[in-house]
Specification:
The protein is built from 9 helices and 21 strands. The chain is α/β, with parallel strands linked by helices and 391 residues long. Helix 2 runs parallel beside helix 3 (102-113). The termini are far apart. The protein binds zinc ion (2 copies). Residues 54, 56, 123, 166, 225 line the site of one zinc ion.
């Protein structure tokens, strides 16, 4: 038997526990405060980090507070974020006490809490040419503000900044349908003040910028340039995602990220496409996909199913390069995001009986090595070719 006193002590304890746990419960059940698993694999020797190096807040022409940027990026599976408010365009300055280092300082505690890398940055905002330049890995934003774009870039470089040209297709920059490269960009490049270009910004992709990165040895970046609350421009939980820079880093820290950017170890993810070098895109495909049914037995001209799992949120569209000996394979295969896809292969007439390794070669048409070329990927099977008439 419990005494009345014991019962009362117990109910007070439970009531107390409930009150203490209420905020925790509220946080855990908060509808969207969950980080998505994008299933983008690390590569041999490199961690694959998801970065957005171009975002805005109320400290320039953005519409959200700096901590919101961290929260959004964390939920969407990002590892690295840079807030890059404009230095020269400050439409909220009547209402805000603008100081260039404040967005970083305000967002940093949240970034630390969420285990995200926050990189101090700014957008040097000049008319075209040279247009807008982002400087990231700054130590202090104040000294880089300058009327002259070259002085601004030099001050950023003096701090060891990584500098890239934003959205080269800025309205009004096209000449006869093409994005021009200007003398000012040659000047920046020859002075060592230009290290990369946005190949994707928001929902746009610029083939000219992609080609410049290849021709001039510049790093490819894909960034959101988000000004709104992210959910007003994208529906990430429905798979409508902002673009990202995939960073292949030896170390998961600021230095590792900077080293990767300087060494051009990036790829750009925009929509369902990825732009980058073969040495990154092929292992990315291989890390994300797995043949679920690698061992097959085919009698004569019989048909069997092949299942391939794709652990990433990126679907892969594959175009046949050729039929391997003894097999007829589909011309096109789509490996759906986050799922297992199935397709059929058939034995062909006169296939030699026996057990053989067979490689299916496909061109991955949503992966881009250049604005026109795609890498060839391999699907490896082991087939027991059995004699017979089954068709
Ligand atoms: Zn801009
Ligand atoms: Zn911007």
């Amino acid at each position: 038997m419990q005494s009345r006193k014991e019962l009362r002590a117990r109910s007070i304890f439970f009531l107390g526990a409930l009150i203490v746990s209420l905020p925790i419960l509220a946080e855990l059940t908060g509808r969207d405060r969950v980080r998505v698993d994008l299933g983008i694999p690390d590569l041999p020797g490199y961690a694959t980090l998801l970065g957005d190096f171009h975002t805005h807040t109320v400290f320039s022409d953005g519409l959200v507070w700096p901590t919101v940027r961290v929260d959004e990026a964390w939920r969407e599976g990002f590892d690295v974020l840079s807030i890059t408010d404009h230095l020269e365009y400050l439409p909220h300055k009547e209402d805000m006490n603008i100081r260039f280092n404040r967005p970083y300082a305000l967002a940093l505690p949240m970034a630390r809490e969420m285990r995200m890398e926050l990189i101090r940055g700014a957008e040097i905002t000049k008319k075209m040419p040279p247009g807008h330049l982002n400087a990231i890995f700054l130590r202090d934003v104040d000294p880089i503000f300058n009327e002259d774009y070259l002085q601004s870039a030099r001050a950023a470089a003096a701090q060891g900044a990584f500098i890239f040209w934003n959205h080269p297709d800025f309205p009004g920059n096209r000449r006869e349908g093409k994005i021009p490269w200007h003398e000012e960009h040659t000047t920046l490049l020859s002075e060592g003040l230009l290290h990369g270009i946005e190949v994707a910004n928001g929902r746009d992709y610029y083939p000219e910028a992609h080609q410049w990165c290849l021709d001039k040895g510049l790093t490819m970046l894909g960034n959101s340039d988000i000004h709104n609350a992210l959910d007003l421009d994208y529906a990430p939980m429905q798979g409508d995602r902002r673009p990202a820079t995939l960073v292949f880093a030896e170390d998961r820290n600021q230095q590792g990220i900077k080293d990767a950017l300087v060494a051009h170890r990036t790829a750009v993810w925009s929509g369902d496409n990825i732009y980058g070098a073969e040495q990154f895109l092929v292992p990315l495909f291989e890390g994300a996909t797995q043949v679920v049914t690698p061992d097959l037995a085919i009698r004569g001209r019989g048909r069997v199913s092949v299942q391939i799992a794709n652990s990433s949120v990126i679907p892969f569209t594959l175009q046949r390069v050729g039929n391997p000996a003894g097999l007829s394979v589909p011309e096109e295969i789509v490996l759906a995001a986050k799922g297992t896809s199935v397709f059929s292969v058939r034995g062909t007439e006169g296939a030699q009986p026996g057990n053989r390794d067979v490689i299916l070669r496909y061109r991955a048409t949503n992966l881009y090595l250049t604005p026109e070329d795609h890498p060839v990927v391999e699907i490896r099977l082991n087939v027991e070719f059995q004699p017979g008439q089954t068709r």
